């Protein structure tokens, strides 16, 4: 088992295309997960007992939905969402279609991370803001998000790394990207060169994302 470098050079166009498709998928999915998951994570926190938007029903419903989606293995979620994906984007194959399932999987994951980051904030800071007459929106914007920004950045990093792994899995059902390349060339054709190359690409991508995420989290952490 080894790498045929001549064969690898021949596959560079396919590898480049797969890499671009992977970046495309995870960028869309990350954007959707942050835009949707951030407010859900905030709601999970502020509707809890003792906080300014305390609402047991809302908290229970949100908890149930988030836990339900997170409990479904991604490959099953991917297949289960095929009708919805077809309705939404008009196809069930390709990186755009895969982005739908990736987004649905990432939203509750990121929401939980946001909730956890907010719970690390000292309650005294929130109580002081309430005593000063700050509105709920001001507390969320100027206290919660500001105090939890380092944890949220770390959460974005973890979500992005999870999306890289999920995007590779999406290749098993024609989602495109690195996973699709590994399945079509590496698995079906027993091509060790492409299998090793795709694994190395994914490892390097994850390492770069982790290092960059850790650096940004440290920069914004003023504690």
TrEMBL record:
It is a multi-pass membrane protein. Residues 19-213 form the ABC transmembrane type-1 domain. This is Methionine ABC transporter permease. Belongs to the binding-protein-dependent transport system permease family. Its main location: membrane. It holds the Pfam family BPD_transp_1. Gene3D superfamilies: MetI-like (1.10.3720.10). It is found in: Cell membrane. Keywords: Cell membrane, Membrane, Transmembrane, Transmembrane helix, Transport. The chain crosses the membrane at residues 23-45, 57-81, 87-111, 151-174, 194-217.
